[in-house]
């Protein structure tokens, strides 16, 4: 199971846990590109710390693929314009 799904399940099952709040704030910061205090991650127990790191890794990878998809779409559009 990927980290984003694991985090979602954890937050759904334990929304009042301090770790759920930190993970939620991390996700919101990543999605909105706002600041996040990295020291909050260090306050997590090892299991949730590793989950936070895995979220960061997946988010970066997903962002790369989203950028690649946008580039591909733009490339298709440019090619179509050249054909016309």
Brief sketch in words of this structure:
This protein is mainly alpha-helical and 84 residues long.
Describe what this molecule looks like in 3D:
The model has no long low-confidence stretch (mean pLDDT 87). The chain has one domain (3-83). It is mainly α and 84 residues long. It has helices at residues 3-13, 18-32, 39-42, 46-83. Helix content is 81%, strand content 0%. The chain is built from four helices and no strands.
Summed up, the domain count is 1
In whole angstroms, the N-to-C terminal distance is: 46 Å
What's the rounded overall pLDDT mean? 87
Low-confidence stretches: none
Structural class: mainly alpha
What is the ordering of alpha helices and beta strands? Answer: HHHH
Radius of gyration: 17 Å
Describe the largest sheet.
none
- Helix count, per DSSP? 4
- Rough shape? elongated
Strand segment tally: 0
Could you tell me the strand content as a percent range? under 5%
Query: Helical residue percent?
Result: over 70%
Structural descriptors:
81% helix; single chain; 84 residues; 4 helices; mainly alpha; elongated
Question: Topology, pairings included?
Answer:
Blueprint: H1 3-13, H2 18-32, H3 39-42, H4 46-83
Helix pairs in contact: 1-4, 2-4
